[in-house]
Design a protein that fits this description.
Shape of chain A: globular
InterPro entries (chains A, B): Aminotransferase_I/II_large, Class-I_PLP-dep_aminotransf, PyrdxlP-dep_Trfase, PyrdxlP-dep_Trfase_major, PyrdxlP-dep_Trfase_small
Strand content of chain A: 5-15%
Cofactor (chains A, B): pyridoxal 5'-phosphate
Number of strands of chain A: 15
CATH superfamily of the largest domain in chain A: Type I PLP-dependent aspartate aminotransferase-like (Major domain)
CATH class of the largest domain in chain A: Alpha Beta
Pfam family, one (chains A, B): Aminotran_1_2
GO biological process, one term (chains A, B): alpha-amino acid metabolic process
Radius of gyration of chain A: 22 Å
CATH topology of the largest domain in chain A: Aspartate Aminotransferase, domain 2
Oligomer: homodimer
Strand order of the largest sheet of chain A: 2-10-9-8-7-3-4
Number of helices of chain A: 13
Low-confidence stretches of chain A: none
Order of helices and strands of chain A: HEHHHEHEHEEEHEHEEEHHHEEHEEEH
Structural class of chain A: alpha/beta
Helix content of chain A: 40-55%
CATH architecture of the largest domain in chain A: 3-Layer(aba) Sandwich
Protein name (chains A, B): 2-aminoadipate transaminase
Chain lengths: ~400, ~400
């Protein structure tokens, strides 16, 4: 080995080619430059229940200091699993021992992939789907196939056809206020999807971070709660959207022998989740008024969703397709006309606004004219200004 | 699919056969039954600096409440990376941007394996080595080969031979107070190992959780700090042994393009570590007297190490080999005489004492007469009682 060459590590194939992308680099500068960012799914910190969370941590260190600092089980702290079970049980009877705690939903997705995916396995995903899930599945060797969707989510006939064709390891769905599309599957569609899954015996990984951010009517029951589905589903939740994302507490609900496999995978990946956060979140869920918090946040985000929809309608080409979500955090735009939103982004950042180009949300055959915009971070006046800037960026792009 | 059969998930090959083992089951009951456990590497909670840690969390929620609850970068919070860099720099000049935060060392080991290991790759490990590292490497498809060790750690000639034979992806070493053997490589051995690594161009993953728990003399500089080694090494640390394990904060130090790959892997595996713990640990490291804490703990653990060694010497067969660590948490026993410590364990648990049978610490060809005992959890009088019980278990085993 020549001493003139710098040493370089051998990189695993799974991570080769995962370079810094132009999009990633652009979005990195966004937060530093006074750009109005619609890119991240970042909740407005003004609506965090800071006092309640602070009180929960204080309670933990006043009452269980040694326990908060000591090693603990890979499954998670009992109090947190009980609170998680209580919340899931509103729709689907669940015991604490059916709950595995994870350090946020992302770890949950990775644990599931480690536990279930063999290299080359097919996972069926929505088209478009959540890009960080795709990343976790991809690193575990999965091949993603996108299921066509309409305005109500995956099309059951297409799902059935693709299950028959690919015999997937599992189907990954975000039925409520999907990231990135904002779509919420109506109950009839959920039933039709469950019928397909039950008939074909295909496993479901159901990701439900946004279900409680429902701005009209009641939050919908997960597909896991439909008759016959609970044993066939791993259901993932997190407190990122009902308390705050920085604490990184999520959980997954499953039944039967798979629970042990998931725990072994969790143990190898991260031993256990931090105890202070687990106990604090358990305390918060046991004592704070989560419903009151949600009722405070929902109308704020609903107004922002309406505002962003209206602003975009005024600025985008007449035939652009804009989803009109009644929950969650995201709004999805299809511009059409051969516009490439990855090429639009530099103009947008120059004008002082950012979004995520849609291509990265597709497992294959991306529609490059799409983009994801989060409506939760900014107040309506900032949304107005940001969309104006987006309009100017589009005009400049159009002059090319 | 028959509705009479319960649904079962397809398990990935990497997790097939990872069943509940008899040892795992036995160790599970240990904590519940009044058994004196030497099994876990569990610090004595009486020596946690509860007030300082509590003050650090309070400071975080008083000064950065919104930030503590918000999404943050995958690399980790700047203040924590600065404090980590400051600590590593005592031996090896390090900047904050060379530090990747992990949710404890276990996540760090898994991130490294994701980033570097292709299925079938060889990793050279010490013989014996840390079993949770083997688990993380194994799930990523690695094949572990054990390097013979003597009382000073891996034998350089054997290391060189095995590097030539296997061209390993990396060599995994715990040079200071190794888990499970308690061995600390002297500086001459570190130099000899570094020479081999530099000559062969083999990458090093250096795990250093115990270096500061040094009961005689100064903590030793990591191999990463020897001339030429820093670019070739990923160095892992955690605060589990210098503050407390429950907060799950660790970091890894690397140089060059590998940093980006590690961050991408970390992002896919767990997005980011929880912010409250990151900021609290940063605050603690910036303001609390870590050295004073270590000076309080070291003599306590040193006394316990001496006590356990003396008690074991009085009780075990004369020709049993017992390591005499001057740091860390573990003491390693080789009983010989064809004794199988996995078969001894049930007798031990019946007598009211637990240890970890040594076989699980070997990548292959285990010495089944070995066991790992942690000396840090209990006071000398409890150690005395526990070792008496171990003696009774051995006597009963001998009567078989």
């Amino acid at each position: 080995m020549s001493t003139l060459e710098p040493f370089s590590f051998r990189i695993a194939d799974r991570l080769r080619g995962v370079d810094s992308s132009p999009v990633r680099d652009l979005l990195e500068v966004v937060s530093k430059e006074g750009v109005i960012s619609f890119a991240g799914g970042v909740p407005d910190p003004a609506y965090f229940e800071v006092d309640d969370v602070k009180a929960a941590y204080e309670w933990v260190f006043a009452n269980h200091p040694a326990r908060a600092l000591q090693y603990a089980s890979s499954e998670g702290e009992l109090e947190l699993r009980e609170q998680a079970a209580r919340r899931v049980s509103r729709h689907l009877p669940t015991t604490a021992d059916q709950v595995q705690v994870t350090t946020g939903s992302q770890e949950g997705l990775f644990v599931v992939a480690q536990a279930l995916v063999n290299p080359g396995d097919v996972i069926l995903v929505e088209r478009p789907t959540y890009l960080a899930a795709v990343q976790a599945f991809d690193l575990n060797g999965a091949h993603m196939v996108g299921v066509p969707t309409d305005e109500h989510g995956v099309v059951p006939e297409e799902l059935e056809r693709l299950i028959a064709e690919h015999s997937p390891t599992f189907v990954y769905l975000i039925p409520s206020f999907q990231n990135p599309s904002g779509i919420c599957m109506p109950v009839e569609r959920r039933r039709a999807v469950a019928d397909v899954l039950l008939r074909t015996g295909a496993a479901l990984v159901e990701d439900d971070p946004y279900g409680e951010l429902c701005y009209t009517g009641e939050p919908m029951a997960p597909i896991a709660s439909l008759p016959g589905m609970s044993a066939q589903t791993i259901l993932l939740n997190s407190v990122s959207k009902i308390i705050a994302p920085g604490v990184r507490i999520g959980w997954m609900r499953s039944e039967g022998p798979i629970q042990f496999t998931l725990t072994v995978a969790k143990q190898a990946i991260g031993l256990q989740s931090p105890v202070p956060d687990q106990l604090a979140v358990a305390r918060y869920l046991a004592t704070a008024d989560v419903e009151a918090h949600l009722e405070r946040v929902r109308p704020v985000y609903a107004e922002r969703a309406r505002a962003m929809y209206a602003e975009l309608e005024a600025v985008l080409p007449r035939d652009a397709h804009i989803t009109r979500p009644y929950g969650g955090m995201f709004l999805w735009v299809r511009l059409g006309h051969g516009i490439d939103t990855a090429r639009l982004l530099p103009f947008a950042v120059e004008e002082g606004v950012a979004f995520v180009p849609g291509a990265s949300f597709y497992a294959h055959d991306p529609d490059e004219s799409t983009m994801r915009l989060s409506f939760v971070t900014h107040a309506p006046d900032v949304i107005h200004e940001g969309v104006q800037r987006l309009g100017r960026a589009l005009a400049r792009y159009g002059e090319l």
